[in-house]
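Dear colleague,

Following up on Tuesday's group meeting, I ran the structure prediction for the two-component complex that the binding team flagged. I've pasted the input sequences exactly as they went in, so you can double-check that nothing got truncated or mislabelled along the way. The structure tokens for the whole assembly follow below. Feel free to forward this to whoever is handling the docking comparison.

Inputs:
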Amino acid sequence: MIDVKRLREEPEYRRGIERKRVRPGLIDELLAAEEIRRSLLSEVEELRAEQNAASKEIGRAAADERAERIAAAAVLKERLTTREPHLAEAEASVRALALQIPNPASPEVPDGGEDDGVVLRTVGETPGPPPLDHAALGESLGFVDSDRGAEASGSRFAYLMGEAVLLELALVQWVMSQLAADGFTPVIPPVLVREQTMEEAGFFPTDRSQVYALPEDELFLVGTSEVPLSALHRGDLFDADALPLRYGGYSTCFRREAGTYGKDTRGIFRVHQFDKVEMFVWAHPDRSNEEHERILAIEEKIVGGLGLPYRVVDIAAGDLGAPAARKFDIEVWLPSEGRYRELTSCSNYLDYSARRLGARVKDDSGNRLVHTLNGTACAVGRTLLFLFEHFQESDGGLAIPDVLVPYTGFSKVGPRS
RNA sequence: GGAGGGAUGACAGAGUGGCCGAAUGUGCUCGCCUGCUAAGCGAGUAGGGGGUUUAUACCUCCUCGAGGGUUCAAAUCCCUCUCCCUCCGCCA
């Protein structure tokens, strides 16, 4: 949630919101509602102060004066009761409007939308298309069975099988051990969460349609371990020297992918269920930019360490999504399509998410909200698919990246005879 | 799933309708004292919103797990929910 006070006072803050292409007028509606709220607030507070004072008198009054004083206080109470609902209504409308407003884009973020991201750097050679695309290779080596997946569960579900499973586990282990070495605490979080957790993580109400629900138990399947990781410190007040706190969450992720019919239907590029290692950092508000750079560097180290050619994109304001103030994507070259496709991304949410979570840090000049950041360490299924194309051999087999061999125990999967 | 007990400030822990935003202890901050340290002595120390103010500061409201209710007045009484503990049942 945004900071309504800063919106009122800082033109720069407002400009950051406008750059995200919010409906014109929405900001003014919020500001108008906030004015109403504040005037009702001071009115109600004045009435309450009078009534509180009258009440306190009763406690001190002599027995024979009480009846009279109670009657007088009751009149004040009555007056207060008629005004309070108006305030409650005003507060609800401020909140409803505020929830629709995205986190302002940071000043450094490029203007524009989906196609206006700025490529910061490009690393590695981009090969031409391989004999088999990722889906065909996955099928030929017996790694992926989408047909049976569809029978069991519907479209966009697949069985991952054979050495691909060992490769997945190797990837997870390699990535996790790197994160642990970089000061991240490994976590396997719950993947079913309550509605409140979804709200506080910022996914409800905006992304509700993307989330699987279990109405019987009032639980929801997470689309990323970011959700349960954010709940790990809800309401906490940190000592300044306790930060940053870094977590590496490994979990299965579930996404309905509503509105993507016909998009990326080959193989396991876009599926309803996949595993992911996610970084989540609670940072001191003065040092979140450093953490963001650090997370990006780790992502590059992982993608680069696997030997995949990639580029880093500084995402434009209109394409940031509601909670991010700044976001970098790492896009990896997909040879069969002859273009870069998103593999990982990392965002700085600043205090946007922390405000709803109530996560703060002690500070001499009043406690401040912490900053939260997150980034993909490894989207496992999608990473496999890039490996299927880049490490495909001329005989139809698959080589294993050197860094993973210690974990798989084999360096190549031969073609099926 | 059934029965009972509990949730209070950074932490521990008192508090069963009014002078309680809350005793006391620990911790922390400042000062005194003391070769240093420790101990001792004194003072201070919850969070959030709104307002006045250049600022220091002041005024006010809300918050004792969460949300509702009773009352002139609620940490305290009532209802719902969440979590924790004990016992019983069931179970990988």
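Chain A has a mean pLDDT of 92.

Cheers,
M.
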